[in-house]
Design brief:
About 50% of the residues lie in helices and about 20% in strands. It is of the alpha+beta class. The protein has three domains: about 5-155, Jelly Rolls; about 160-215, no CATH class; about 220-280, Homeodomain-like (Arc Repressor Mutant, subunit A), CATH 1.10.10. A hairpin with a 2-residue loop joins strand 4 and strand 5. The longest helix has 22 residues, at about 135-155.
Amino acid sequence: MTDRLAGFFKHYHFSMQMFYAGTLCKNQRFDDDSRNGHLHLIRQGKMTVCSSAHSPLFIDEPSLLFYPRPTSHHFVLDSDANVDLVCATLNMGADSGNPLTEALPVVVLIKLNDLPDLAVTLQLLFNEAMHDFCGRFAAVNRLFEYLLIQLLRYILNRQQVSAGLLGGLADKRLSKAIVAMHNDGGRSWSLAELANEAGMSRARFAVYFRNVVGLTPGDYLSRWRMSQVQMLLKKGKPLAWIAAEVGYSSAAALSRAFKAQFGSAPGEWHKLALAASHETVE
């Protein structure tokens, strides 16, 4: 079976850090820190989740609340209500152009009873988070990372996603072509070769890919390559090396393509990204 998530985990750094576990007895705000999303596991209690990014969400039973991208939100508790929960920040490479992060919804809210495949992981995570065991934070963070993988599987397999990158990954035929691009982004893929990966005719593949993903196969490949360029620039790799790695004939050709998409040369973009990173850390 095609591993639709392998390319993202191979090329982008995913990390999660627990920052709260216990009983919340007052309203709480979570500000947009420009780098991290949030994953909240509500074990019991009632509250309303408010954000300018979505309509108010009422939670009255155990639930998973997932913000894949930095999003300001706050919890408004019912009067005299206590909410037991575990919270973690997550970084899915949004600041390095990870297209999966951008493709996910603004917020995902799922009742824990609707996640039977995650029950064992949730039980282990709650047990570790709510007790003062040695190595507690290391254990919980790793369980959160595993939970994230399971959650992404759920979103791809169980939810109705019919458009965009998630729609392409959910499609048995298109996913094969998308994964091929992820696995070998530096290759000069022809439309015929990608259509063959999907087991479709070239004309049918081109139309179907655009209708579902919203981009032509060539445009998607270009965007995937540019996301790789962003990630490699942040790692300090030289431009000529990056160009060869992602399939451009020269550093100059890469610079032209990069500026056409982002409005600035790779070096300028990297300086701005570094400055933004330093501001966040401070």
